[in-house]
Specification:
There is one protein chain. This protein is α/β, with parallel strands linked by helices. The chain has a 7-stranded mixed beta sheet with strand order 5-2-1-6-7-9-8, with helices on both faces. Strands 3-4 form a two-stranded antiparallel sheet. Strand 8 and strand 9 form a beta hairpin. Helix 1 runs parallel beside helix 5. It is globular, with a radius of gyration of 17 Å. The two termini are 25 Å apart.
Length: 208
């Protein structure tokens, strides 16, 4: 079984991980032979956190319970408090995930956190626009690896801009291989364009 760990923290941008959590938790469009996925929220403690949208979240576990291996996934949402020193503990886990072969997906402010500890210096990545990481990360050395796209995958690292939640989700679903290829393409087309024909095509693809 693959466990997808979602780091939750006060002021987290809940909408940035909404598409991903909905699909991984509900499994509504998974192909019939997809691997089993478990989604767990993880935080520094078991105390409730309040998202930017006002949602109250009770974490499933603390970071000491996270299993770092090549099969598992760590998702890091944006937040206003990534600069707080206490979050360095999850960044250390992110480094271990990358070294072990597990997937790390970071969006918006979380890309700044990764850049600040050098994890984006040698991998293709994106963030909230060219120059954004240079502005907030004085030791950032990955300018030549920056790609100006909503979301980018390089091996077992996915990064995304604040506006790239849908694209990040597509890359995560593709990496986990839980959707049939045509289902994923129609899913992305439907949610990115609103074209009802794509929705019907997606539903037909589930019958194959």
């Amino acid at each position: 079984m693959t466990t997808v760990y979602v780091y939750v923290m006060d002021t987290m941008a809940d909408w940035e991980i909404g598409y991903c959590l909905a699909e991984l938790h509900s499994k509504r469009f998974f192909r019939k032979d997809a691997s089993d996925i478990s989604v767990k929220t993880v935080a520094l403690s078991k105390e409730t956190v309040k998202s930017m949208g006002g949602l109250t979240i009770v974490p499933d576990m603390t970071i000491k319970d996270v299993q770092v291996n090549e099969d598992n996934v760590l998702i890091l949402p944006g937040s206003d408090v990534w600069s707080d020193s206490e979050n360095f503990r999850i960044l250390e886990l992110a480094k271990q995930f990358l070294e072990t072969g597990g997937l790390v997906a970071a969006i918006c402010g979380a890309t700044v956190a990764l850049a600040n500890i050098g994890l984006l210096d040698d991998k293709k990545h994106t963030s909230n626009g060219a120059g954004f990481l240079n502005m907030f990360c004085p030791d950032y050395k990955g300018t030549d690896k920056y790609i100006d796209q909503p979301a980018v995958r390089d091996g077992n690292l996915i990064t995304a801009a604040a506006t790239g939640a849908l694209e990040m989700t597509k890359l995560i679903l593709e990496y986990l291989d839980v959707f049939a290829k045509d289902t994923l393409e129609h899913w992305y087309a439907y949610f990115s364009t609103g074209n009802a024909n794509e929705f019907f095509a997606m539903m037909r693809s589930l019958q194959k």
